[in-house]
């Protein structure tokens, strides 16, 4: 059976991995990734389109200085993008986020199993936690980078706007990233914390073994029996 110290350590690691898993589930399901304000104009109207969306669904709001505004529209992101480079990159973002979620499952399994058993020296020990949480953090980081690139450089929001207002002229856009996007930083932090817990535990365990293996010459002379 594992010691109490090991049980507490791996239980804490399990909780941080579970926290990362829950956060990614919330990030996948929310729409608050980015809100883009796109200035539009044509012969009959002048104003802006405000588009808020997540990975799967979003909402478009028409705000005009003059002209007849259209009603708010809810939309499916992937369906609206059609066959475009923006859709391809957006799909990669979703894949990376799902991969980050999936790599947390074996991490949670390793930490939970180690809290009740002793597979320490196998891949089910700390090494498995390092690999899984390291990969999860890398996938999350790539997700953030690719989403920003798709939004800023590949004009994802403008592409969505053109699907609803194809006849207007777009004169620029500003982007504000929402809480769903910034929560990914917290996921990265939790993955780092999980890894650090394992590092400190292994360091303490190594130090304890080192103390137990002190050479006999350091022992008191009258304590050595022949």
What descriptive keywords fit this protein?
226 residues, alpha+beta, five-stranded antiparallel beta sheet
Describe this protein's structure:
This protein is α+β, with helices and mostly antiparallel strands and 226 residues long. The chain contains 6 helices and 5 strands; from the N terminus they run αββββααααβα. It has helices at 4-29, 77-81, 85-114, 126-152, 156-164, 179-212, and strands at 34-41, 46-53, 57-66, 73-76, 169-177. Strand 1 (34-41) and strand 2 form a beta hairpin. It is rod-shaped, with a radius of gyration of 26 Å.
- Provide the structure class: alpha+beta
Helix segment tally: 6
Largest sheet data: 5 strands, antiparallel
> What is the string of helix and strand elements?
HEEEEHHHHEH
- How many whole angstroms does the radius of gyration measure? 26 Å
Q: Quote the average pLDDT.
A: 83
Number of strands: 5
Describe the structure in brief.
The protein has 226 residues and is α+β, with helices and mostly antiparallel strands.
């Amino acid at each position: 059976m594992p010691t109490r110290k090991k049980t507490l350590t791996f239980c804490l690691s399990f909780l941080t991995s579970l926290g990362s898993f829950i956060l990614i589930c919330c990030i996948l399901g929310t729409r608050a990734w980015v809100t883009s304000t796109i200035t539009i104009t044509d012969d009959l109207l002048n104003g802006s389109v405000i588009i808020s969306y997540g990975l799967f669904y979003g909402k478009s709001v028409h705000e005009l200085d003059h002209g007849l505004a259209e009603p708010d529209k809810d939309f499916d992101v992937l369906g609206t993008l059609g066959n475009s480079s923006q859709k391809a990159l957006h799909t990669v973002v979703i894949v990376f986020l799902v991969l980050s979620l999936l790599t947390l499952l074996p991490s949670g399994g390793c930490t939970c199993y180690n809290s009740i058993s002793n597979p320490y020296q196998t891949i089910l020990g700390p090494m498995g936690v390092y690999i899984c949480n390291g990969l999860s953090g890398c996938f999350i980081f790539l997700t953030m980078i690719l989403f920003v690139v798709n939004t800023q450089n590949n004009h994802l929001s403008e592409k969505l706007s053109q699907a609803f207002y194809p006849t207007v002229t777009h004169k620029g856009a500003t982007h504000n990233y929402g809480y769903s996007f910034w929560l990914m930083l917290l996921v990265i932090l939790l993955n780092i914390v999980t890894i650090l817990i394992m590092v400190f535990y292994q360091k303490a365990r190594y130090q304890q073994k080192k103390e137990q293996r002190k050479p006999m010459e350091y022992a008191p002379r009258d304590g050595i029996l022949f």
